[in-house]
Amino acid sequence: MPSATRFAAVAALLLAPLLMAATYPADVEAVYAARFKDIATSGRGELSRYEPLEAVPGAPAKSLPRAAKPSIAPAALAAAEAYAAANNSNAFIVIHKGKVQAERYFKGADAATGIVSKSLAKPITALAVGRAIMLGKIKSLDQPVIDFIPEWRGTPKATMLIRHLLDMRSGLLAQGVSVEPDNIWSRAYLHPFHERIIIEEYPLTDAPGSIYEYNNATSELVALVIERATGRRYAEFIGSEVLKPIGAAGGQVWINRPGGLAHSGCCALLPAQSYARMAMLVAKDGNWGGKALLPKGYVAAMKTGTAQHPHYGLGLWLGGDYIERRGFANPNRPTPKVLHSEPYLSDDVVMFDGNSNQIVYIVPSQDLIVLRTGDSPPRTPEWDNARLINIVLAGIPGAKLTPQPRR
Question: 103 has which bridge partners?
Answer without folding.
Answer: 93
